[in-house]
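We close this part of the discussion by returning to an individual protein. In the encoding step, the backbone of a single protein was reduced to a row of integers, each denoting a local shape. The sequence in question and its structure tokens are set out directly beneath this paragraph.
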Amino acid sequence: MDDNEILRGVALVFVIGLPALAARDAGRELDEAHFQQAGRFRRAIYGSIAVSLLLIAGFGLVVARWQEVAGEELGWSVGTLPPALAWSVGTAAAGIAAAWLISVASGKLGLEESRLGYLLMPQDAGEKRAFVLLAGVGAVCEEYIYRGFALHVLAAWFGQPWVAVAVTAISFGLSHGYQKLAGILRATVLGALLSVPVVQTGSLFPAIVAHFWINAAIGLGGWRLLIPEELREEGPAGARNLANTEDMREEEDLHGRRAVCPSRLAVCCAPACGSNRRRADTTTGSRSSTPRRAWAARSASFLTTSCAPPSAPRTTR
């Protein structure tokens, strides 16, 4: 493949720009509201991720077409099917084993894991179907972006394919920055493993198939082997419990009615805990009997660790 500045520029956008965007997002502080929404709207998030990947990969395809780069030069070929399938199986097995080993080592070393990554794991049948579709889109698009376009362009530029493998693998790992340090290490190693069949065969097919199998295996239950035991309650199961609490619930106690609201650590509090009250209606001397749902919604918006409504029912004047 001929080396030209336009292809170099786009390859650099991929290997530098995508990790930079991921680093910006990884630096944002996510509160409990974000985690609850991640649990409620997984399928919408899957769709958003798929569209983003399709747009980025589509941009690469347009540039390659514009520069008259043949698809075979970027790995769009299958080659001989039996060896390609053998590479796919071997790479997928190595990738799954590596992901598990890195997760175990990360737990031993105390490396930070991402709660958000766990929250995005599918829970019901519909989410699992959507996740499998995302796994397919992600495998095709990410392999083309990193192991297709960027790897081939950088290999032609550097004159050394394994240098390009190192650059794209590190970039691939950093683009998973939202998964924290342990996730970055996993993605970097997987990026390097997925590059091997591309360099050896010149085809993206084994890497795409292996990438899909790895993603699908993790999403359809393999995440249980990657999530540390102590974090599992903060993972998808915990997210599901929070996601099911879409409205504030009210319950009666001996002193009247008590609001129950989601908080950072627990669901909530005794009427006697008036010192922890975040917001109360002090506009009138009397207490209104309007539903406590509005009060609870206002309190929950502060995401407090506790909340307490007045100990007696309000009455309207």
In short: Residues 125-158 form the longest helix (34 residues). Strands lie at 249-253, 256-260. The radius of gyration is 25 Å.
